[in-house]
Write a structure and sequence with these properties.
- The chain is globular.
- A five-stranded parallel beta sheet has the order 2-3-4-1-5, with helices on one face.
- Helix 4 links the parallel strand 2 and strand 3.
- Helix 1 runs parallel beside helix 2 and helix 4 runs parallel beside helix 5.
- By secondary structure, it is an alpha/beta fold.
- The chain folds into two domains: 151 residues, Rossmann fold, CATH 3.40.50.300; 125 residues, no CATH class.
- It is built from 13 helices and five strands.
- Bound molecules: zinc ion.
- Zinc ion (ZN) binds next to helix 3.
- The site of zinc ion (ZN) has 8 residues, from helix 3.
Length: 288
């Protein structure tokens, strides 16, 4: 579920969730939005899970996975910011606490986008939160959020996993370490299983990123025909990203590369459930 979170971060979240002293507000900081989302989602599942392990099998885990949990709410920016009206609606929803779980979790993965008014309203709620309500905030750094909010939060810096861990994870889902696309045995095997020929030229990720989003769809058009081709394409792009991360580990663009890798890996997993590969690929292309 969280191939890009470091083991130390996962262990820390696990330890807090299984302890008895649960605070009512946590601020998870990390470089990229997708990365923070992953950390917040994992933490929420650990808190709700009957076994405190994010097992994926118990009733609360299943409800979260199918987005059917009455005791969770996510606040995301309406336009460029999270507005006071959204916070008021949230306060109205949480006033009675959880209905079927031990906790009601309010997720604000981009807390830095709260307007000043909205921040103050959140702050008021943090001063006397309803019983059983836990706020899970995210931000690029603690400085991105009002100090009055951070002072009422437990701050958890989240770190990415080691290159070896990401590499092992990618290998386990069909990622190949081969130098070139054509030499990738997995890709050739998957293509032959799918009854398709490998397209002569699959655009590199750099080519895709240098193309405006609307034209990316034209550039990759032949690939959207089958789920296997989209799968191969995503694996190839992950591989390219991964190589560039390994080559320049101190590059200032690393957080963005991690976000993209995170997006690709998540979509490789989701592809299994998506019936329309063309639409799936189009959505990824505009989010990269
Ligand atoms: Zn569970």
């Amino acid at each position: 579920m969280t191939p890009v979170l470091s083991q130390a971060t996962i262990d820390r979240l696990r330890q807090i969730a299984s302890g008895s002293a649960i605070s009512h507000c946590y601020l998870l900081t990390g470089p990229a939005a997708a990365f923070r989302n992953d950390a917040i989602r994992l933490f929420e599942m650990l808190l709700h899970c009957t076994h405190k392990s994010a097992c994926g099998d118990c009733v609360p885990c299943q409800r979260l996975e199918t987005e059917n949990d009455p005791d969770t709410l996510t606040l995301i920016a309406d336009g460029a910011s999270i507005k006071i009206e959204q916070v008021r609606d949230m306060i109205d929803r949480i006033k009675y606490g959880p209905t079927s779980n031990s906790f009601f979790t309010v997720k604000i993965p981009d807390a830095q986008t709260l307007t000043a008014q909205a921040s103050n309203a959140v702050l008021k709620t943090l001063e006397s939160p309803p019983e059983g309500v836990i706020f899970l905030l995210g931000a690029p750094s603690r400085a991105a959020v009002l100090t009055t909010i951070t002072s009422r939060s437990q701050v958890i810096p989240c770190t990415p996993s080691s290159p070896e861990q990401i590499s092992n994870y990618l290998l386990s889902i069909g990622f190949t370490n081969t130098e070139t696309w054509q030499a990738s045995p997995n890709a050739a095997l998957m293509a032959s299983k799918a009854g398709t020929k490998l397209p002569h030229s699959v655009p590199t990720l750099a080519e895709v990123l240098n193309t405006p989003p609307a034209q990316r769809i034209i550039l990759t058009h032949p690939l959207g025909k089958s789920k296997d081709l989209v799968h191969i394409c995503l694996i190839k792009w992950s591989e390219e990203l991964w190589q560039s991360i390994q080559k320049n580990p101190t590059d200032p663009d690393i957080p963005q590369a991690i976000r993209r890798l995170d997006l690709l890996v998540e979509n490789i997993l989701q592809l299994r459930y998506n019936l329309n590969p063309r639409l799936h690929l189009d959505q990824i292309l505009v989010s990269l």
